Amino acid sequence: MTAAPTTWTPGRMPGRLAGWLAFVLALTALAYAARLADTETPDDLAYRWSSSVAALVQYGLMLGILLLIARGLSKREMFALHRPASWPRALGLAFLSLLVIWAASAALSPFLDASDEQGLVPDDWDSSRAGAFVAFFLVVAVLAPVVEELTYRGLGFSLLAPYGTRVAILVTGVLFGAAHGLVAGLPVLTIFGIVVAWLRSRTGSVYPSMLLHGVFNGTALLLSVTVA
Fold it and tell me: How far is residue 189 from each of residues 19, 74, 131, 181, 216, measured CA to CA in Å?
């Protein structure tokens, strides 16, 4: 038996919303500053233990800031930590959302390749560094989706929801896309963010969004080392 998603929505919290916006805009500014600095991403990023350690630190700090913004509030409500009313329905919506994202990505990839621009996926498999790759995979397919969904479809969506569901979907989607610091990949990532925010709105839970995000990231990473 699954619990029904909550119908609770917070009242407007301009101070906390301002704090959240400042946080995600700072992430965006840092991402584009790194892009403008033209720092070359190592080709073997996925095979370096240091990549996973740096990600652990980064996402740990992000989670700490989120908890600080939500201090004194119900974490379960603000981060949408509810099981969907129906997991079969939620999984069906997640699968449909994933198909839409893949279709959009395939349609835009000949012109705007987010994977190449971001530089996170390796070009081939290196069995001698499998351990480091597994650690990186767990970061990309588990840790990143959990923290990023809590950031945008969790706290961000809840703070924006009192201004309207459409506002919450569009704003979190655009800010999610921008936070990656990409130019060519921005349209695909924005579509991703909007579709996943729609999924969050339809299920009342952040868990299906985490699952979709993890499958998307994990599939992209595995395909990069298995498909020539």
Answer: 23, 29, 29, 10, 12
The burial class, CB within 10 Å (0-12 / 13-18 / 19+), for 194 is buried
Three-state DSSP state, 164: coil
Crossing angle (nearest 10°) for helices 186-203 and 165-178: 140
Alpha carbons 32 and 42: distance in angstroms, whole number = 18
pLDDT digits (tens, 9 = 90+) for 83-119: 999 999 999 999 999 999 999 998 988 776 665 666 6
Q: What is the dihedral of CA 194, 144, 204, 21, to 10 degrees?
A: -60
* Rounded-to-integer distance, Cα 220 and Cα 121, Å: 8
Look at residues 196, 209, 227 and name the one whose alpha carbon lies nearest to residue 121: 227
Domain that holds residue 166: 14-74+86-226
In a domain, 4, yes or no: no
Dihedral sign from CA coordinates of 134, 30, 193, 120: negative
Is residue 2 assigned to a domain? no
The answer to whether residue 3 sits within a structural domain is no
Give the total number of structural domains in the chain: 1
pTM: 0.91
Q: What is the 3-state secondary structure (H, E, C) of 77-139?
A: HHCCCCCCCCHHHHHHHHHHHHHHHHHHHHHHCCCCCHHHHHCCCCCCCCHHHHHHHHHHHHH
